[in-house]
Batch of 3 targets.
Target 1
Amino acid sequence: MSTKKPFRKGTVSKGELVFDQNFNPLQSKKASKTISLQSWIANTKSKTLECGNYQGGPQASNRKYPLWPPPHYNYMPSGFSSSTKDNFLSTALSSGGLFIQPENASTTLPNHVDMTQDELSEAMDTSSGNDDDDSVEGDDMSENMDMSSGPEAYELSDKETPTKTTGLTKSNVVNVKVEPDLDDGSDSIFSNKAENMVPKVLTLNLNSRAGIDTSSNATSTTPRMSSTPSGRSGPSSHTSAGPSNLNDSVEETFESLKAPIRASSLSSELSPAKSTTPPTLKPLSSGQKLAQNRNAARPKRLRFSDLRARTSIPTNMSSTVLAQQGIHAAYSSRLNPFSLHPDEYKLLRDHICHLHVSAYLNIRNRILRLWVRNPLVSVTAEEAAGCALSSRWLGLAEVAYEWLVRKGYINFGCVEPPDTSNAYVKRYKSKRSKRKTIVVVGAGMSGLGCARQLESLIEHYKEKWTSKGEETPKVILLEGRNRIGGRVYSHPLKDQKTSGVPDQKRSTAELGAHIIIGFDHGNPLNMIIRGQLALHYHALKDNSTLHDIDGHVVDEDRDTMVEKLYNDCLDRASVYRHRVLPPRTVEGDKALIESGRDPNQEGGPSISAVEDNVPSPDTGHDNSTVESVPGGMDKLTGKAHMITGPRKKQPPARAAEGMGWKLSSNVLAYHDLNLDVVAKGSSNPTLGGAMDEAVKQYQFLLDLSPQDMRLLNWHYANLEYANAANVGKLSLGGWDQDAGNEFEGVHAQVIGGYQQVPRGILHFPIKLDLRTRKAVKHVTYDCNKKVATAGTRIVCEDGEVFEADHVVLTTSLGVLKNETIKFEPPLPDWKLGPIRRLGFGILNKLILVYDKPFWDVNQDMFGLLREPEVKDSLDQEDYVANRGRFYFFWNCVKTTGRPVLISLMAGDAAHQAETTSDADLVKEVTFELSKIFSTQEVPEPLETIVTRWGKDRFTRGSYSYVGDTSLPGDYETLAAPVGTLHFAGEATCATHPATVHGAYISGLRAAAEIIDELIGPIEIPNPLVSWPTQVESEAPPTPQKFAPIQRSHAGVASHIESRTPLEPEDAKQARLEAFENEILNSIYEELGLRPSPPGKPGSNPFLLFTTDVWAETKKACDEARIAATGSLDGKASRNEVRARIGQLWRAAPEEMKRPYSEKTESNRRMNEEQAATFEARLASWDEQAMEVRRKYVREHPGVLSKKEEQDMWKALGVFGDLVEAGEERRAKKMSGYADHD
């Protein structure tokens, strides 16, 4: 990477400003090293924004990518068999005559010829190991971690500030965003293919933060302008609005970009496209500016209830499709779309009725949909309010938004928080108030996640402090090492000559965390890695082979049989697990949620009122006949796949026969296994004891060979890898207490190092206040008070003392067990209990770097069976010591760009590695590899690294496990705060312990705890649901509510002609729009969507053919590209695929083309039939809609004045007193009266 420092002075060269890659003005113009803003804009085509021509939410926004790709259209015309097509394609795709590719052909790249590769990589912040400005993260193992070799650590003082920036940086005046080049036919930004996320295009993306749409040259005719608390209108962060032509004036554009760019429109204005200040005017002095600010009119302050409903609802999408996207978004956020989270239940049970839970869940799911579709931009309050279908639900929208933000389900990670500022700081008071301080100890994933989330939440709620004249709290991050990441550590290799990975990626070896365990079903790292940082990653495949002690490959069928036997033993041991009933919650109406409809009744008593009057169900026993049982083993992680199975187990003899085993001659079919002797014979039974007993009893039923025993113990070793401990130390009742929370989808490795993730969290959107080499030795805290008055103190080993109001301790459980940090007062017994009972294990690795690979580079992993201490022994105890020694090898060629193998040391072998010399370990592993690859010479490695995490004083191990003395709830107890002392880390995350994502989730939880302590819990609006009938009996609490109804002596409501002076014009407009939305919602619920005009007749035959054969053709083109370039990452462009399909179509026989032509003709006839009946269907729908509208208005008297009601009918094209005379005329349009002043 280039280390050249950019010039800081600006200049004009040939009438044009000159910038570096970070858009800092340069002194001189160098064509080979710089790029002008004019050239950048002219040559960059944005793929981010998609301008919409309608009002309504994310469809008109830069959330371009759908929630999931549409189903693949695989139409097969009648009369044309699949075999005919397959034969033709296989012949055509394999022949070279149909596809002629010029030798010098290459994929067309964006026109960025003025940028060098060094500058490109610097702009993308992919950092090499020699960057002086990035060495705060360091590249050395801890000085307490023994290793055999590796480059020296790069150290950065606390005063140095990295200069590398990307589009997520707050201080940068222009957003330079890494964009994926999606060319696989999928529209999903979260494609599972690593190559789809390779950052190939740097796009000038001002986003909607500056009110500029860079997606096209056209300007949106109806940008969504949302109400803001400042009383001004601004573009939503998820809506493209404003001018799109940026080429008018480079100088003026640069000036307009100098102001800080915010992520929200809550108190921002559109950046002007042209300067309106005469160039002759002198800038104001600081005194003049201060006076001008004092005299400026302060913006009007609005509440959440003043915002507009329905503005985030796409108008061209059916409610069912919208609901399905919201449901998918909830599943993608670790939430059940059909029931309240236990925390939501506790928050709402006293305020909401059962009926309205469905409305709340609908809103919550729609808000999650906005976030999942584009995690690059924070969801704003305006957008959250716009997810409500009616103004009556705005209270629910406010609670849902606040809960999702505070608990870290949206707006987390490397994204700038929305600007919710409404007040000015009272400067004369701010000097007198002591600024609150929060200290986070540990810069691992939990500490970084907590600090970043705290910064985001403090910014989100900053008015809580600024309105009182206080400064917002500051967050300080302390790290004992000279690097960040904790147990996420990517060690740079000595030789950085890589092959097959992006040029800007450095070659590293993962000494700690290695695998991203599934991107789907709510992994927050999905949003950060793929959605925000756009990091390169390699999707892993379970294509492993197992080698026996002689090096030969184990028979696959035999391996499958033994694995089933192992799973059966695990299943029978699971009978003794602790059964904890799920927490209490409330479900919504599934039919309403799936259709996207809200309840249309006022509701009834609150949930708590109903539950308090109904006897609680018996929670002492779980009478279910099914449970989660191991359904298979994940070789990548060592964890069991849990499936729903019967609680009553099948007799082992019959189960073994079902697996393919042959029973011994003297075995009875009804013979059963009895594990009670182990499970009930000890006060602290272990999983290893129960499984060993099951194996011994199976040996009586089956003739297990020594190879079968080696295979069984290989799976044992893999389970010990998952728990970082010998199975004999795991609790029988609680070892899998997190079962059922596993994430789904592909497992992956980050190319260039997992440590890029903590680096991104540290730096974006602004760098956190990090202090390295600050090892903490003493913490004084207040164990009784929520906010310390005397102050909490943190004393470091170097003598520096930090005073704080709250402390978040993210050190490992191993450090707590070792009592490295002293607490004053000592931790209470209820906290020390789980620290002592929970286990903290060790997993070690041996990294081997070679000059060239001697293994199959397309195989991500392979396994090795180990010999027992007594050769060919059938005694299970003889396998314990050696079964985890070099039992598994990771092939890291595709992630490091170098021939690298990483061997695992699990179970007892991990402890053996702590005391064995490097030379002995390398000698032993080389001997084992030479047996596997006996046909070729296995050389000595060029570089080796041995991890010894047990000796690292900052961790004292690898990750936690459920020890044999552990109690249910120990993880939750360890996570609980003690006064002003809070805890985070993987050992405090009960749902995802021993994982990187679990550590990050715990940081989000700790941040929410502290915010609750600082500003109080989430406030529930009163009333939570504003039902329209309330206007007849209650005075309005806000100007937006309807004025009181005047009644005649007969009790009939009369219209108020003079109501306009009672409410501001903007409140009146909001009231009219809210009522109109309620009418439309009633119409849609009863009649469905208005018939749409028939579209074009449909695709031509060639397009149908293209859709049908695209996948096969693209695969063939990719293979041809790989063969031509010799690169495994070779990939054909869209144009190549289209050209080849064109050749296939021209060469296709007539009988193959005929079905597509017939389908096209059929589509044309069908379209003509629909067009013939369209007018009649439209007229009928309009008449019925008018009847529903008239009925709704009559059922809600007093909402509209007489004049407003007349204006409504006129806007709809109906004249005369329709309501009284009962005339039925077709409306010219369905709505629009609220658009008139």
Target 2
Amino acid sequence: APHVNFLFRVLHTGLAEGEILGAMLAQYGPSFFWDSLGHVMDANSRSTGVIQASMNRLPNMTALEGLDLSGLARPLPKRSSQPLSTSKTELLPEPFSIAAASSQLKVNAKDPGTRQSGYLELMRLAQRDHDPSSAFDTLLTYLQGRFQSEQEGVRAGMLSELLTSEMLPLDLWTEKLSHLRAFWKACSKARDANTYKGMWQQVGRRLVVRALETWGEEDGETKQTEPTESCLFGLEVAGNLELPKLYVTHTRSWAKASEAAARWVFETTVPLASDSAELFSTFWSALQTIAKVVPKGKGAECLLWREWAFLKERWVALLAQGVRQKAAEFVLNDIVELLVKKQDEVKMKPDSPRWWEPLECPEYEAAVGGILEQIQSGEIPAKEGSLMLARRVRVLQAKEDIGEPEKVGAWVSNEFWDFPKYHNYKPLPCRPFLCYDFMAARELEAMQTVLESGRSRRQVIWTIVEVASIVTGPVVNKLVGNAIATLDPQSEGMARCIARHYPYLNGALSNKERLQGSSDVLTPLMELWLVDNATRDENVKRIMQRSDFEYFLFFGVSFARHLSNVRQEWLHKCLVKLKAPGRDEEGFEFYHYPRRGPLLSWVALFGKRWRKHLNGGSLGESLGCVQMYLWHPETQAEFLQKALTTTDKCSLALIPRMEYADCISRVSQLLDCYPKEQDAPVTQGDIWGWDVIQAAGSYSDIALEVERRFRELPPPSLQHAVDDPEVEMLLTSLGRADDSIVALKVLSQYAGKVKQAKEAVTKIFSRVSPPRARGLIQDVMLPKKAGIGLQVAGLKMIADLQIPSPLELYRFAWCDGQCQRDVAAIILCKVATAPEFPSDDVRAFFDYFGLKEQNVKDRVYVADVLLDALIASPNWMLQFLPTVVARLSMFPGLTKKAIDALKKCETHAAAVLTAMTNIATAARLARRAKADIKHSSADASLIDDLAEIATYSGIRDMISSASRKVNVDCEVDAVRRFLIEALRTWWDAVLAADSQAPSLLDCILVLWSKLLRPKAPEAWPGIMSEMERQVARQSRAE
């Protein structure tokens, strides 16, 4: 119809006063718009294509952007005529903008995406309204009506755009809180409530953050002290919010921090009415978080505690309402540990005292007392309660800032007494630093009550070990003593032998029921109980009052060491009750099994420096820690019978050290059965007891089960073999025997066979006085049956000990020259170089080189050794030695060395010249006869040696050496004979036209000039004329 087209075109005109639409709206109001739009849409629905035919574009709806939506959005008046559309259409109520009508077509569409787009357009229109608050009131009311009937995706998109994307401005959230609450309730009741959970959590977080940011702003004369309604709603919908963290994040500085806001945060985070067991930990976690608003170095939690009184009030209120079992650990230990770590941070000044105010209030003391009562009554199980008490002692020690005994703690935590694990025993550290127990008196009394109750006794005892490694004092001493009183040492020893073979038993006996842990709890108890010198003797006395006191020797070393060094009478009682390892039918005790714990033989090893020498039974040859001299002879005899029955190194080393027991008989017994094989093979597989025999099992009485399993063990593998290593060890140990004379009688039988026996004899003689040693050396060391090694050691010891009149001992060992060549060499060297022997008394010794009974090689060997000694000692006291050396020069290979010895000699010049003359004559003859001697003959080697020194240069060296030796006291005849022999050699050089002849003659004349003595000038002409005659005579003779 024409009027419809007209109205359609009118709707496309502008809103200015000169435009039709603007004029009509000014005249008739918004109803003109709705009536015109209704006629156009109605006509379009009845005759399709009317509008499209006249206009191929949609109306210009952008012209409506400047309209007042609140004035346009009024409901259309009811019409009696036909409705605008055949479909149901929800219309926006007034006074929303008339331009929203364009979105009605989308929000009523069948497509969910189109409807969601329509809702978004409406939100944008509301944002651009000149009164957004009023516009959103209308829009939110409209959306609430559509919310329940929409699909899930559309509803989620609607809320996401409205809240997450903040189409509803954040500033309006507080104002539109009722609408938000309505949406929240609708979402909570919907079947897809979880879909909106994350979205509403973000909404709640934003509301709370905004409330915290604006908290404390002045509002007239009043100041905000309580949270706003929007803050409470935000907390409701957000669920679990980390309020302390939000508070710190949105509090710019300590100066702007709101105490009221912090109080609300604290009271909300830590509600008193809550039954949660984590209230106490939550309280301190919140306090630590809020303390971040305090500048560094200003006191942190300490400043908050003193500035904000509500913190202390809240802490007291929490403690006053009682401490549940789940919170007991935190209240008892965690809070103390936390404050200990915080001490450096909470200092307000460098010299500020330590901050313990939360722990010093009466309510906290009462709460601790209540927890201790729960532990003692059994309300808190004994095992868990004892662990709490042990930790309480440790944190109190840290609170007192005394310092932790690290070495003792490591010894306990690592179980260093576990012999099978470490393959040796590591004693408790020397002089451990422990705190005194007065600081934890209540806790120790509570642990005493738990121990007496008998509940979970094994684990309670393990916690007592931990406590005793931290503190010391009378209360701990009593506590540890009572714990030891509950244990059976024999059963504990059996368990130590078999526990690792049966893991189900080891788990029940070890600390914290660990399968790989140590089952031995008695050893650490004993070591920690006896660590104090002041109480050790009294505690040992308590043990000796028991009927099973002897078994305590094998748990740690403190008990055995005290008995060995201080209480030998108690040690004797223990040894009497102990059994020696017997045969299978006699049975074995737990201490007979090696490598499971300390051995009985260790009792003798607690002398000086025992820690250094105690190495888990693997003792070397040096036992400087042996201490048995204080023991009674009967005690030593018992020890020899019970502890030293095997042939291991430790036992063999200790047997000769028994001063008052018949150790020599035991040594002789062992040596008589040498060699002896092992009776039964020593087990080499599982020597440390780790092989699992049965992993699981059941029992009604663990003590009976342990004994039953122990009796099923095979006999222990004890060493009884006596072979070369055992004999050597035994004889070496005899060298340290206290009775030297008796030991020497045994050693003398084996000194020639075993190297260690010679060393042992030597060590014994070092402790004997020289007068007494003289006879012992002659009887034990010098006879031929003693062996070469011992004879040589005896000859050296004669000089070392400065035995008086040693010549007799030398003659005894000499045996008229029928001794071994090493012995002969030593004796001749001693006699030749010693200054105290007269020549006539020792001349016979040197006849050795003329004895036909001696082997030529032996004589050459002895001569070689003697020449070396003479060269090293040039001051010869025996006048006949040059003659002997001249004789030794005729031995093959020794000619040059003999000449060197004569050259080195500083005494007896005439005898030396005579010896040189004889050697030079022999050398000259050998040089002439060398061509006639066959190389295969026996004398060929000697001829070669002599000819080698008969060279002109060799003779010249001899003449030069003689020139240095000749002095005014030298015999003239000896010099003349040497000169005549030298002249003969010179003439040989002349005849041979040797270039060295002139220099040789010069040396001869220099030596001849030595005969011109200053004290006899009248003889000079005769000497000179004789020199001329001899030179001429040699020339004519040749």
Target 3
Amino acid sequence: MFTALKDILSWLLGFGAEQTTLRITKLLVFPIKSCKGTSVQETRYTPEGLENDRTIAIIDAKSHSAVTARELSKMLLIHPQIRYDSTDLYGGTIDISFPQDSDCQAFSIPLNPDDELLESWPLAEDVRVWSSRNDGHIIRSIDPDAIFGPDTPSETISNFLGRNVLLVRKGPRPRAVVATPAFPDLKTTTAFQDGYPLLIASESSLRDITRHIRTAATDEDGKLKIYGLNKEVWKDKEFAMERFRPNIVINGDDALPYDEERWEEIKVGELSSGDAGKILLIPNMDIETAEPDKSVPSQNIPFTDDAYWSQYVLLFDSPSDVSSLISPHDIRRAIDEAPENLETLITVLSTRLFTLITDHTFPSPPTSSFSPVANITATWGSVSGTERRDPTKEALNCFRVLGRILPVVFEADNSFENDVFWKRKRTNVDADIGTDRTGPQFVIEEDDSDDEGRPSRQPAAGTARPNAVTNEQLEKPLAEKLLSSTIDLMFCCGFTLPSKLQVDHHKINYTIWERGIGSSVDVVGNSQLDSNKAEVLRFLEILLSKTIYTSPNSLLLISNPYVSQLVHDHHTPRRLVLPMLCSLLNTAMNSGSYSNAARAPLTAMGSVGSMVNGVGGMVTNLPYQHLIMRDDAGPALVSLSFGVLLSLLDYQAAEARDIISGGEAVTSPIVPSPSTSDVSAAPTAVTNSFRYFLAKLHRPSDLDYILNGILGILGHHISATHNMLPGSRKIVPHTLETFLFLWKMIELNKKFRSHVFESDRLGDVLSYLLVFCLEHKEKPQHHGLVRALSYIVQCLSAETDFGNQLSQPIPSRVSIPSRWVTQGDLGDFFVTSIYWMVATTSGQLNFLYPALIIALANAAPSLTNLQVTSSNRLVQLFASFSNPSFLLSDESHPRLVFFILEVLNQIIFHQFSSNPNLAYAILRSHKTFENLGTFTLSKGLREIRRVKEAKEEAERIQAGKGGDKGKGVERTTSARSSIRAHSPGSRVSLTDDQSIEKAPLSRSTSEFVIRSSQDEVADRPIPIPETPTERSLSSLQIASPPSVSGISEKARGKMKAGQIHGDDEFDPELERIAAVGVGRNGFVPTQEWVTSWQESLPLDTVLVVISELLPKVRELQASSSQSKTTSAILDYLKMVEIKTVLPSAPPLIPRRFQWSDASLVWLSSLIWGEIFVKGTSPLGIWNSTNVKLFGVRHTPQTRGVSNFVGGLLSSATGSPATPPDPRVNHSRRPSRQS
């Protein structure tokens, strides 16, 4: 039902129940969001506002985010006018015109297009207006003579604005209005309006604003001051109502100024509308010129203007309010145009935060009487009428607004940050008041047997903080005080800790948050305290995030002063580091600890019936419980605890670099340039208090607590992702952080490393590492995690007991997904998992192959009783790496052949008799090893060409027309057989595990293909063959190689090199293949390069085994029946003694993971990248800022600041900074109406 707006009746709430009759003096419709409005005599009211109001928007062509005049002020010059025509098919048109000097031709679009026309226009599904996602039809021209064709509207507007944009009409999907605290049950929809469907302003309010401005302009005594007001201009200047962009302008003889601020409902005939939008302050854009009005106040707002600055701690109700209303663009403009105002705001918020800590009213719970329309003219300490202060909300808003400002300050390459945050100011007041805190503190007992050295109590020689001074009359820098206050508020009773912990008037109590390390008492909190903890940690994370605005090349050279302030114990004393470390650690570990029944998830093998009674006897861990009982604060708090903890543990820059020299950790204030092999960089506990105390943990109960917590989190994730009831368990959002923390523990704490092996939990840890590798190997967004996991596996494999525990069964506690289950023990699962990582990733994970193969080499001396499948997998890996297509494609690939040969050699030297299946697989593949011994560049290139030609021939036969179908199939099969016969080995299906295990000698006709490069085009796959055909050795018509037993090393070397015959020399065709079709990234293999690595391959050991055993195995095949051949050969290989013919075994020296500058930077970028991603939604903490540490591929969402909040930085936005008038209700919320 639609009703013409003739008059309006309004209830005036709060001043009595009488009704006041008003009249409408103007109706304004804005057909296109942020463009000029059009005045109409009458219009229809719909549930989404006035008919045709803001039903069209201009959006960015790439991001589909709405563009507003806040960003492009020229939009105010676009003039859409509604022309009604009852004879027109679409009820009329919207005529869109531009300034005459723009050279843009006016055009028209249908006023009310029907469904048929709308369906012909493309539909954009992701139109973004602030935080909402909408749909919109991209408007096309219906004029056949349009200059630019069907894209006239978007093309013309793009040319005018100088930006690629699209003109869209609101689609059919409803866009719900977000409920407000005053109207929590508000249920309505809008088109493209910012906040509400209807915007109302009164002429009495406009007259009052004009009166105040003119009074201030003519006031000679300066009693009524408006900062920055151009008095000469505003003595006579009229103020246009259109600047406020209202829909309805009203007037009444008895209407008071700002009455509309108190209305909760307007009534139009029989229709009513609740919570209409309100108009705030003076927009600074001149609607005639679309330029900032220079006469609008632009001077600085003094620190003493409490009534103005207090709005920033009273206005917002949630973090999303701040992120929605204050954009990085506005802060950036403030830094450039009004830095004094921004500095004042930072100082005001920081000072308020410091004051609240000592304020006896803080913290206090929010009161029910608090209203979002309460008067905010009260100063910091006063209370007006029924208004009640909420100090807790004030503290949170200080964190929220500062957290919005800091990322933009960090990205700016200027002196603003140093001047505001690190410059010491002279003071007559003791700057250290409040820092001498006493009380019982948790102490990590010293373990003299494992002391890696305490961090120095004094700054490292040659280092200094920004503006470091020794003058006692200079107060601490603002940044130091902010960090100190943030730590205090982490342990504030009633704010982040229960009020019952407060002793007398001392509200700061450094009590560890949760039971665990350092505390046997479970501090029972609530969701509100957890939410406050999360907000404090989020702000601390933002303070530490200056790292992401440092380029990778400078990361280890430039100090992050905020992190340095925390990690050095001459800045942050031990009594603060320990509660912080233990609180963060316990919060993270309790999210998955088996030992904490109240919070522990089901174990990986748990069933639906295995429920745990939580607090108050309430049943927890029910299926789908997370959908019924939402806990937003809990997971966020755990993720933030992990993020802050990892960022502190990882910090390696400038004076915080840890240097390993001669195997011992030393402290250096500068980044070294190692000139010898015994000097390298590695994360140790020397220069970082958090690393130091983490490394000092040694009590078995503490180590077991951490290990159980890590395994609990990982088990919960596996259980949630592979549950019989899909979606019944909540996915763990912090598995990456869990693995990275595990890595830190393994690297830093020797006792923990030993505990993993001694507690018989290595199988659990290794199983989870491998399962997560396999689960995420094909997901590019998780390749950073997979890379970290491979390095962790290498770190563990370097320990002496690692290989010994691989003979244990796969732990039943770990629920391995069925598709990764393999027969045998942990060693078989280890080998098979690495094979799957290499064989099924098409060469996309080449960067982690070395770490995985090195881990195999470290464990090889202890690998025993490998099953048929895992034995075949090892030989298949060798065949894949030694295939010419892979081997010649990259300069680094020969080292993979070296490592896999080392794996085979170590097993032959130390566990030959325990691995007959592997020995048998080597003998079946003897030709692959022999071909490598006589490999030359020309032979490799010929093999590549031959395989390519055979494949092309097979494809031509397959696609050929005519002829007998059966013959075609026969020819195709023959061609494929030819490929296999001439390859170093036949190819075995990666997924046909059962056929391999049950019939190890059967032939497989499927193919295994690995691309030699990620950049290979789709129609040029490079086949990497695996093992030779698993058939009876008696059928192999291959001559035995010459025996090498008893010959000299020199002769052996000659045999490996082989003879390069005349036909091996290059011809022009082979040179072309080598230059164009083999190498990648510009690499061209040469014979000299082949000779350089081939001579160093440890191939002798395998060739000796083949030459010694192959003839004897053939004799067994000839003398035994076919059914008994395999068992006879395996029995023989178990009993045969070959040590006497083998060369001397090399010493067992495991290859440990070696840190480098590149790996340190990579790990930092991985940690901060994960923090960054988690901060993008829903708050967008670092969005639209110039991050330098890593690349960001998301499209930033443009958000503007309201005119009210824009007053934050008056000169930056040009908005007036009028001190609140006592007769005006200044608690009205900012309008985001464009």
